[in-house]
């Protein structure tokens, strides 16, 4: 499916749309006037510095956090597969991978095995969950999210704790899974250059949406470079300053929340 | 040779250990040791109110424990205070409130030590009926909550996204725990209740291959502790409740020496 087709259909049948979301904690904007829509089959990556509100935005999308203002719209009966940022398991927690996969649903052994093979973890069905390596655990978590045949996969830092070679493989895997399972993907990543491989659209977040677009376009965006600083330049293949960019056209200016407009503390 | 009261004590101890094992596994997994302590400490307030209002102490203890469990559930959701601070406040204020209330009741001399450290040798037939009735009720409901509880113990948000009614399950578990604490008070006393949750479960966790096995083994370890403790108490004329806990500690220490299969 080409990118153009997806964008054509997005107007009418977004899987999930967030409109002018504000999330305020302790008098501070965690999220400020964030809007985004996710269309079927699309891969969207959220990037941004630490504390930019990436995980919070995922939680609002998942319904785990309630936005203070703004709207979350989901298509009817949306099935979401969620892969959390980390699973802290005690080393002695006595749970096998098979049991873990079945905790909140009943699936036949064949389907478990097939799903694990799809994520390259077919040999782990009988392993102990607590004894998996970082990369293995990520794959099992991904597999578990896929078991539900989701229309939307929500992945919070899916390559965390995985070495660079493993990261490339995981991102490629996510791209393949999108094609095979026909699901949309919304993921958070710290990593800037690797993630671009398998992404249709990047949203650069720092409380507000700084810039959004295809990976190529975002990398040229002045807001993006301001956010990550010149240190990022060596990592980027393409960069040219865009003299056309004007701050007053940024979509994030202004919101109607009870705190002030400039993001200062209000008691 | 064994006197009647010894048989009743054994039956009560085994009943309590059977229930405490499975519940204890979740107390360990969910890091709820302090939560259990808080419930146990508030039991003394229940005892005091029972005498004051002339209702059955066990029922009063259950009522107060349930109330504290529900109160804690809602206070923790507000997240105004760190969880352990909140637990500390409730735990110690309930304990002190209980002690002060008891002091106010003039014409009453109750054996405080019996409530603090248990009085298993004085267990009556009615106590036994309550222990087994409430115990089986609690275990039955725990079985229903088992899978969702496991899912929540691993990752709360993941469980929520996958359709588990996290709040309901947690509230139900807290209330069941309150019930179990109430029936355990007579056996080990409110200061030692948490140990019967923690010690057996912690003792067998390394040896368990599945959550169910761990719950079962914890129950078995608890029963062994009760038998060993009562035997020691009989033999050496030591207080029964603490003797059971000492036995549980020994079992814990011994099982740590068992080499793990790889």
Account of the protein in words:
- The complex is a heterodimer of chains A (267) and B (262).
- Chain A is 28% helix and 22% strand.
- With 267 residues, chain A is α/β, with parallel strands linked by helices.
- In chain A, the strands form two sheets. Chain A has a six-stranded mixed beta sheet, with helices on both faces. Chain A has a three-stranded antiparallel beta sheet with strand order 2-1-4, with helices on one face.
- In chain A, helix 6 links the parallel strand 6 (152-156) and strand 7 (184-188).
- The longest helix of chain A is centred in the middle third of the chain and has 18 residues, at 164-181.
- In chain A, 41% of the residues are buried.
- Chain B has 262 residues and is mostly helical.
- Chain B has eleven helices and no strands.
- Chain B has helices spanning 4-29, 33-52, 57-78, 83-104, 112-117, 125-154, 156-161, 166-188, 193-204, 211-236, 240-256.
- Classes of the chains: A alpha/beta (267), B mainly alpha (262).
- Chain A binds chain B through residues 59, 62-64, 80, 82, 84, 87, 89-90, 92-96, 99-100, 103-105, 148, 154, and chain B through 29, 147-148, 150-151, 154-155, 157-164, 205-206, 208-211, 213-214.
For this entry, give a set of tags.
heterodimer, A: 267 residues, alpha/beta, Rossmann fold, six-stranded mixed β-sheet, three-stranded antiparallel β-sheet, 8 helices, 9 strands, 22% strand, disordered N terminus, disordered C terminus, B: 262 residues, mainly alpha, ABC transporter involved in vitamin B12 uptake, BtuC, 11 helices
């Amino acid at each position: 499916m080409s990118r153009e087709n997806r964008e054509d259909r997005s107007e009418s049948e977004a899987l999930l749309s967030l409109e002018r979301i504000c999330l305020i904690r302790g008098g501070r904007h965690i999220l400020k006037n964030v809007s985004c829509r996710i269309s079927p089959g699309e891969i969207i990556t959220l990037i941004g510095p630490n504390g930019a509100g990436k995980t919070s935005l995922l939680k609002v999308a998942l319904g785990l956090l309630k936005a203070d203002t703004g709207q979350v719209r989901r298509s009817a009966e949306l099935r979401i597969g969620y892969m959390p940022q980390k699973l802290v398991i005690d080393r002695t927690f006595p749970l096998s991978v098979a049991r873990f996969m079945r905790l909140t649903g009943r699936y036949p052994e064949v389907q478990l095995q097939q799903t694990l093979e799809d994520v390259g973890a077919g040999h782990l069905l009988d392993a102990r969950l607590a004894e998996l390596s970082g990369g293995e655990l990520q794959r099992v978590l991904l597999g578990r999210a896929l078991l539900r045949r989701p229309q939307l996969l929500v992945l919070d830092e899916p390559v965390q704790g995985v070495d660079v070679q493993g990261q490339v493989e995981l991102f490629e895997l996510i791209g393949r899974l999108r094609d095979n399972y026909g699901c949309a993907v919304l993921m958070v990543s710290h990593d800037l250059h690797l993630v671009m491989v398998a992404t249709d659209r990047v949203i650069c977040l720092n409380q507000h949406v700084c810039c959004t677009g295809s990976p190529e376009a975002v990398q040229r965006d002045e807001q993006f470079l301001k956010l990550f600083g010149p240190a990022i330049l060596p990592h980027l293949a393409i960069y040219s300053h865009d003299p056309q960019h004007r701050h007053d056209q940024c979509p994030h200016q202004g919101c109607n929340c009870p705190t002030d407009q400039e993001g200062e503390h209000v008691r | 040779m064994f006197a009647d009261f010894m048989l009743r004590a054994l039956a009560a101890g085994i009943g309590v250990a059977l229930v405490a094992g499975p519940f204890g596994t979740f107390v360990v997994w969910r890091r709820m040791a302090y939560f259990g302590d808080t419930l146990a400490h508030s039991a003394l307030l229940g005892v005091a109110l029972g005498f004051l209002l002339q209702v059955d102490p066990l029922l009063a203890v259950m009522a107060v424990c349930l109330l504290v469990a529900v109160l804690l559930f809602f206070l923790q959701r507000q997240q105004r205070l760190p969880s352990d601070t909140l637990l500390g406040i409730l735990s110690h204020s309930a304990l002190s409130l209980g002690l002060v209330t008891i002091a106010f009741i003039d014409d009453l001399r109750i054996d405080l030590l019996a409530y603090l450290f248990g009085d298993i040798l004085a267990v009556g037939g009615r106590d036994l009926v309550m222990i087994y009735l409430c115990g089986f009720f609690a275990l039955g409901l725990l079985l229903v909550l088992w899978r969702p509880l496991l899912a929540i113990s691993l990752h709360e948000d993941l469980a929520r996204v996958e359709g588990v009614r996290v709040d309901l399950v947690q509230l139900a578990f807290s209330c069941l725990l309150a019930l179990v604490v109430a029936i355990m008070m007579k056996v080990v006393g409110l200061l030692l209740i948490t140990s019967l949750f923690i010690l057996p479960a912690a003792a067998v966790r390394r040896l368990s291959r599945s959550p169910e096995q761990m719950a079962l083994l914890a129950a078995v370890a608890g029963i062994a502790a009760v038998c060993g403790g009562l035997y020691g108490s009989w033999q050496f004329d030591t207080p029964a409740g603490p003797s059971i806990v000492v036995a549980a500690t020994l079992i814990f220490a011994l099982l740590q020496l068992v080499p793990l299969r790889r």
